What does this fold into?
Amino acid sequence: MSKLDVALLRHPEKRSISDAPLLARPSWIRGKSPTRSYSETRSVLRKRALTTVCEEAACPNIGECWAKKHATFMILGAVCTRACAFCNVETGKPKGIDLGEPYRIASAVKELGLAHVVITSVDRDDLEDGGAKQFRACVLAIRSSTPQATIEILTPDFRNKPDVIDILLQAPADVFNHNIETVPRLYPKIRPGARYFTSLELLAQMKKRNSQGFTKSGMMLGLGESNEEVLQVMDDLRAADVDFITIGQYLQPTPRHAGLQRYVSPAGFARFADIAKAKGFLMVASSPMTRSSYHAGDDFRALKIAREQAQAQN
Ligand code: SF4
It folds into this structure.
């Protein structure tokens, strides 16, 4: 079955979503065309049979990121146990765990010469640990083969599975990222398998247990949220002591995904950035093309400097 056929099938949790026509994109939503370095990145990934969220989520930044040899690895397969209404990743019954995957990722990191690595995964509610041990294995494999690389993990909420934080902290990443995605009112429609306060609690606990690590979370605009609700999410994330917030434009993958409700202008994103900074985030990335992993390496370096400056002032 082709990817298009899969996209056109409707998962039971997505059957309540009516078709929503795709809106024309404004001039500021533009991806860059692939270059030669893009092909080199693709070849490094293909030869190791690795999956990226860049391709699975049809990210508009792929031309730019891959040209810079920056890709976000997606572990634990390309099939997700949840059916979020915004997401282009296939929903279904995932396969078993690929024990060679951490080593192939580590070898790709080495060949690409990555200074900062981002690893994410599909939701694996079928696994006892939600996939936490595979994240740990990837961090350990990369630390062993490229010790100078910094690592960011962008995880699912693990649905309150026991010991997850203990497992992840046996090999702590430099950045723990978990996306809040949208405002709590929209969760039943947009993230039906998730709970807003579970996500906040995971972020808060991770910071409490590893205060030296950075925490990061992101949300999309255009799913039907109001500006006031966005500000409330910022406050909730600050209450969970999250260091870094990313805010980007939701882009509807197909007519069968949640309908896009608004395009926020670049100036609108800049206003949200100003407010987020005023609310005390160490670092803010807010623009139409911002994604969790967009410019993640540059942002990590800026994040470290921001913390040093904040500590110097105290
Ligand atoms: S923004 Fe993230 S997901 Fe998109 S192409 Fe860049 S690295 Fe991949």
The radius of gyration is 18 Å. The pocket of iron/sulfur cluster is lined by residues 53-54, 59, 61-62, 65, 70-72, 291, 293-294 (CB under 6 Å). The first helix runs from residue 3 to 8.
